[in-house]
Amino acid sequence: MTRKKRDANHGELRQAARALGAVWIDTCGDQSIGFDALLAYRGELVAVEVKDGALPPSARELTPTERARADELDWVGVHVVVLKSVSELAELMSVMEATSSPAVPYNALFTG
């Protein structure tokens, strides 16, 4: 397993997401996963790729592995969102809240 370098703002975004009531699951420890985190909020789940907004645009492009994973997930309707700042995170969470659907408990799905 190859470890992926964390962007400078990764910790700040993780902390902000949790402070705003989301679940942030780090996945950046394994480069083969192809994105940095899973963000769950109000019944919605997205894959997150963190990019350092302080870097030039050319340094914020998706790597070939990241692009391949984003394309693969997009094919099955799962979004990979690139976040560069806490303000982008807050905007994403606002959209997730607005589009969320009521959660159905798993046990309700499997009872006869």
Descriptive report:
The chain contains four helices and four strands; from the N terminus they run αβββαβαα. A four-stranded mixed β-sheet has the order 1-2-3-4. The chain has a single domain (10-102), classed as Trna Endonuclease, Chain: A, domain 1. The protein has helices spanning 10-19, 64-75, 86-99, 106-109; strands at 23-26, 37-41, 44-50, 80-83. The chain is globular, with a radius of gyration of 15 Å. It is α+β, with helices and mostly antiparallel strands and 112 residues long. The mean pLDDT is 87. α1 (10-19) runs parallel beside α3.
Low-pLDDT runs: none
Which range best describes the helical content: under 10%, 10-25%, 25-40%, 40-55%, 55-70% or over 70%?
Answer: 25-40%
> Quick one: overall form?
globular
Compute the number of strand runs: 4
Overall average pLDDT: 87
Determine the N-to-C terminus distance.
42 Å
CATH architectural grouping: 3-Layer(aba) Sandwich
The number of domains is 1
CATH class: Alpha Beta
Classify the secondary structure makeup into a structural class.
alpha+beta
Cα-based radius of gyration, to the nearest Å: 15 Å
Order of helices and strands: HEEEHEHH
β-strand amount: 15-25%
Give a summary of the structure in a few sentences.
This protein is of the alpha+beta class and 112 residues long.
